[in-house]
User: Which sequence fits this backbone?
């Protein structure tokens, strides 16, 4: 009911009925238990996360200093690196139990990513950039009856101008590029969005607008949002704020 | 979509990609061009003489007989007596016979005595006849027809006098019996271009006052007297022979080779040319090897280009990985890119070759007498093009595997 009421705040996503059930599951979307990781060749440095849980539809701000292991934590959650010990469960699946290929597909299906530097393909059109994750996530694509129409709808909802779909993403302004990056993360309604300092390149006004739109979209889709930032001023806008220092220790400390 | 994105990435790096494709195209064009020149040279070589069924000379080796009778290289070990020549000429299988007499020279060019029938019977390049560019076939005893290279090198024109030297590299000249250029032949690309042709009787005439290879002191027969003399040769160097029916070639060849009066040799020009080509084939192999090295260099250049683009494309690959692309997709994209570049380069190279042939064919023909036919690509050329594309794919595996490892190491949080 909560999802439906939030969707009413914006236009209806083109989602098939079978997907509602999965999205309304009450199990945590992310759970890390006693996770330990050491970078290969850097035995003196590692990360230990005793416990981290994110509920579905929750918006969480992860604050941490540079070098505190934020990127390592995100890589562990995304499954591009695997923990030495402990469990990383995304949407109820222990990603360590998946093969490398299965992890790639699982990531594409379950996680939408927004980067600090947008990381759009500059030579590709806005439409191709937004639809790119669907190429590697067939289940995510199946949730949409018309991916092109959904991409267009997301662009409209994120305040991108009419006719932007065919434009080369490299030709857009910084703020527009970040919105395209958000649309790319949101398309197909992955249950978890990870945003790695997505507003650090934006000025204050654009930053506020972007966050407002991102929140509206993620809440409309019932998506969990885990956003990494240095900026503690954003704290009030999130359901929960966690500090790297509270949830994780570098292995030097942990050893 | 992935193909479209890979193509878009290529277009975005247009200049570098174009340069790489151009390098491949040029090397492919060079390789195929060398192939064309090689096959053209081979067929031109094989077409040095055509329409002649047998060449007859004193018994030696078939290649040696071919070399001195057709290519004017080296000397005959012995002559063919005029009696034997007449004997052969009178055989029923013989359709026509043309004697050639070699031995003297003019500057660095060989002088060949023959009959007027030579100009009708000697064929080259699939049956083409000799044509007179300036003047006419010799009419007088002391007329000469010179090849195109002789005229071009020595700057001769019709009416110019020519003094024939006795033997090759001899300081003794038949200066008492000068010849006059009566005609200059069109360029043929054959040894005829480098030949001074006189009548068989003229060869006899200039040697009337000679004995045992030396001029008889104080003796000089006037030209008018010589013109009225019976100048039948005692011997000729070789004879070109045409047969009424091809079925009789081997029988006549055997009969000449077993001629009881003197040891003779009859050779099939085509077979002897093939034997000779095999001898010079090492140069052909070297030529192919060098052009193959050019293609290999271009492919290594493409590998270097892909390598150097890896860093600038690191973000692109990280994006694909972040979106869920498996590392093998990254690997596949780079190999696909290389295959595309190699394929476009190969096709462009083929196009350049044909443009080059269209422009260069008449120039090469007139400059070197080498006829390069413009024909559709052969199966061998198709294999070469396919080989370039496959080699491009293989070569690209080196940077592709590096990209694969890089994409694994970078994960998806790369900030470049």
Assistant:
């Amino acid at each position: 009911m909560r999802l439906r009421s939030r969707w009413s705040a914006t236009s209806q996503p083109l989602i098939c009925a079978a997907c509602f059930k999965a999205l309304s599951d009450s199990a945590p979307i992310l759970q890390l238990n006693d996770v330990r990781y050491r970078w290969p060749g850097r035995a003196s440095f590692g990360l230990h996360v005793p416990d981290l849980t994110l509920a579905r539809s929750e918006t969480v701000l992860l604050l941490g200093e540079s070098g505190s292991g934020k990127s390592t934590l995100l890589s562990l959650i995304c499954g591009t690196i695997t923990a030495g010990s402990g469990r990383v469960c995304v949407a109820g699946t222990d990603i360590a139990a998946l093969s490398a290929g299965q992890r790639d597909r699982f990531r594409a299906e379950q996680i939408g990513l927004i980067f600090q530097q947008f990381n759009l393909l500059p030579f590709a059109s806005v439409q191709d950039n937004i639809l790119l994750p669907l190429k590697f996530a067939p289940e995510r694509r199946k949730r949409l009856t018309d991916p092109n129409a959904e991409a267009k709808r997301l662009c409209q909802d994120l305040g991108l101008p009419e006719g932007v779909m065919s434009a080369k993403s490299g030709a857009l302004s910084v703020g527009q590029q970040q919105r395209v990056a958000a649309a790319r993360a949101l398309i197909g309604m992955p249950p978890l969005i990870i945003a790695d300092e997505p507003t650090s390149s934006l000025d204050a006004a654009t930053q506020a607008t972007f966050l407002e739109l991102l929140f509206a979209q993620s809440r409309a889709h019932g998506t969990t949002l885990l956003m990494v930032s240095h900026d503690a001023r954003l704290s009030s806008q999130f359901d929960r704020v966690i500090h790297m220092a509270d949830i994780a220790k570098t292995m030097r400390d942990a050893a | 979509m992935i193909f479209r994105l890979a193509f878009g990435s290529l277009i975005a790096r247009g200049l570098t990609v174009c340069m790489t494709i151009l390098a491949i195209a040029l090397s492919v064009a060079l390789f195929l061009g060398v192939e064309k020149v090689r096959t053209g040279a081979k067929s031109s070589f094989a077409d040095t003489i055509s329409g002649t069924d047998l060449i007859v000379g004193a018994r030696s080796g078939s290649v040696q007989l071919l070399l001195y009778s057709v290519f004017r290289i080296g000397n005959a070990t012995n002559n063919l007596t005029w009696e034997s020549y007449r004997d052969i000429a009178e055989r029923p299988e013989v359709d026509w016979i043309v004697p050639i007499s070699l031995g003297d020279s003019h500057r660095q060019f060989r002088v060949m005595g023959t009959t007027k029938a030579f100009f009708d019977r000697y064929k080259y390049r699939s049956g083409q006849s000799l044509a007179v560019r300036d003047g006419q076939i010799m009419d007088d005893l002391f007329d000469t027809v010179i090849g195109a290279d002789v005229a071009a090198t020595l700057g001769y024109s019709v009416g110019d006098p020519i003094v024939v030297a006795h033997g090759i590299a001899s300081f003794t000249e038949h200066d008492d019996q000068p010849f006059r250029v009566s005609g200059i032949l069109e360029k043929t690309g054959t040894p005829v271009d480098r030949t001074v042709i006189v009548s068989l009787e003229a060869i006899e005439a200039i040697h009337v006052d000679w004995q045992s290879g030396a001029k008889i002191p104080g003796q000089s027969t006037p030209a008018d007297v010589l013109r009225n003399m019976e100048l039948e040769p005692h011997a000729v160097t070789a004879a070109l022979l045409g047969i009424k029916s091809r079925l009789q070639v081997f029988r006549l060849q055997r009969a000449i080779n077993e001629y009881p009066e003197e040891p003779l040799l009859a050779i099939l020009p085509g077979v002897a040319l093939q034997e000779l080509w095999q001898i010079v084939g090492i140069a052909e192999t070297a030529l192919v090897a060098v052009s193959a090295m050019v293609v290999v260099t271009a492919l290594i250049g493409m590998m270097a280009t892909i390598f150097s683009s890896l860093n600038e494309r690191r973000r692109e690959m990280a994006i694909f990985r972040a979106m869920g692309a498996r590392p093998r997709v990254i690997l596949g994209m780079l190999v696909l890119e290389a295959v595309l570049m190699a394929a476009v380069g190969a096709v462009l190279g083929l196009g350049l070759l044909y443009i080059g042939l269209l422009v260069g064919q008449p120039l090469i023909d007139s400059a070197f007498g080498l006829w390069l036919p413009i024909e559709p690509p052969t199966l061998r050329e198709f294999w070469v093009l396919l080989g370039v594309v496959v080699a491009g794919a293989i070569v690209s595996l080196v940077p592709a595997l590096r990209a694969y490892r890089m994409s694994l190491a970078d994960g998806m949080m790369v900030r470049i």
Summary: Chain B has a mean pLDDT of 85. The radius of gyration of chain B is 31 Å. Chain B touches chain A at residues 1-2, 4-5, 8-9, 11-12, 315-316, 318-327, 329, 408, 411-413, 415 (CB under 8 Å).
